[in-house]
Amino acid sequence: MSVDATVPAVKNEDTPRGFAFALVAYLLWGFLPVYMKAVAHIPPPEVIAHRIVWSLPLAGLVLLLRGRLGEIATTLRTPRLLAMGVLTAALITVNWGTYVWAIGSGHSLDAAMGYFINPLISIFLGAVLLKEKLAPLQIAAIALAAIAVVVLIVSGGGVPWIALTLAFSWAFYAFFRKTLPLGPNQGFFLEVLILSLPALAYMIYLQMSGTSHFMQAEATDTALLIGCGFITAIPLMIYANGAKLLKLSTIGIMQYIAPTIIFIIAIFGFEEEMSAGRALAFPLIWAGLVLYSLSMLRQNRGR
Description:
By secondary structure, the protein is mainly alpha-helical. The protein has one domain (14-302). Helices cover 79% and strands 0% of the residues. It has 13 helices and no strands. It has helices at 16-30, 32-38, 44-66, 69-76, 79-104, 108-129, 136-157, 161-177, 184-209, 219-243, 248-254, 257-269, 276-302. Helix 6 (108-129) runs antiparallel to helix 12 (257-269). 43% of the residues are buried. Mean pLDDT is 87; it is low at 1-10.
C-alpha cells in the first residue's frame, strides 16, 4: 500500500460531531496559557522536551489502536518523506518554544496576536508561494494586518517578533504539512518521533547535571511535566478528527476561539498591559479578520 493511499478523502460538509470535536480542541488551546503559566518557573527547553517525549506514547497508542503504525514504518524508509517530517518537526518546535516562552515571560497578548494574524499570513504565503490569486477583501485584510504591525513599531513597542514568529512558524508548518502524504495523527506521531531523540538526550543531560525539574524537585513539577504530553497531544488529535468533518470555512472562523480566550486571559487573568499601540493594533487585526471571513464565506457560497 502506498503512503498516499492512507489519507482518507475529506468531505466538504459540516457535521455536529465535527463541530463538537473542533470546539473542544479550540477551548483546550484557549485555556492552555493557564497550564503554561503553571510551568513558567521551568526553563522553556525542558518544558518542550517533556511535551515531545510524553506525547509520543499517546500518539503511538492511537495509531496502534487504529492499526496505522505500519504507515510510519513506510515513511521512515522513504527519504523524501522523512526529510519533510524533519522540516515540519523543526517548525513546530519553533512554534512551541516561542509560545511557552511568551506565556511564561508575560507576553500572552503577543501570543494571542500571533494566532489572530496567522490566517492572514497563511493567505499571504499562498499568494507568494503558490501564486494564488487574492480577492480584494483578502488584500485589504492583509493590508490591515501590515498596518497593525507598523503601528506597533512606530508606537515604540518594537517589532512584534513573538506574534510574527508564532504566525509565520505555524503558517509555514501548515503549508509544508499539507505536502506530507500522511493522515494528521500519523503526521503528528512522526514529528514527535523525530524530535524524541534530541528531547530524550536533553532530559538525560538535565538529570545528570542535577538541573532537571523532573523527579528531582517538587512532585508537582514532575506531574506537570508529564501532563505536558497530554495537553499537547490530546487537543491536536481531537482537532485532527474534527477538521475532517467540517467545511474549511467553518474551521477558518472557529480558529478565532483560541486566541480570543488567550486575549481575555491575558487581560483579566494575567493583567498584562494593553498599551496604546496594542489598543490600536488589535482592532486593525480584528477588522482584517472580519474581511478575511467575509471573503472566505463568499468563496464557499460561490462553490
